[in-house]
Amino acid sequence: MPNQEFSLDREMNIQNNVDATGKKWVVHTERGRHLFYVRPEGGREDSVIPPKLQGMWTKRLYIDAALKQYLKDSWDHADEITRKNERKAQAAKEAKRGKADEETREGQEA
Question: For residue 39, what are the β-bridge partners?
């Protein structure tokens, strides 16, 4: 995890199969066939399932690995958006401060 700040919320949510939008994912077993599939908790039949999690899986190990990767990607994406928004807010703050400094200088020169 290069340059990644440790976030207890992030790590605990990944451990509890919760993505960045707050959706908890549950692995189910199809009765009689021993196949696994993943659905959001309390999800309806028309719930949107990410492409990497669609379908049936033959081993729990495989679907757990795919789910963990999806959750990690989900949190990485959310963290990147947060960082971009913080940079935009900081840039806007600095631009505003620069404009105020410029107006102050103009007022002193007059």
Answer: 26
Q: Report DSSP letters for 28-73, one per residue.
A: EEETTTTEEEEEETT--TT----GGG-S-BS-HHHHHHHHHHHHHH
pLDDT tens over the chain, length 110 residues: 444 455 678 899 999 999 998 899 999 998 888 899 999 988 777 788 999 999 999 999 999 999 999 999 999 999 999 999 999 999 888 888 877 666 666 666 65
Q: Which two tokens stand for residue 78?
A: 């959310």
**Residues 37, 63 contacting (CB under 8 angstroms):** yes
Confidence (pTM): 0.73
Cα–Cα dist 12/3, whole Å: 19
* Most distant pair of Cα atoms in the chain: their distance: 86
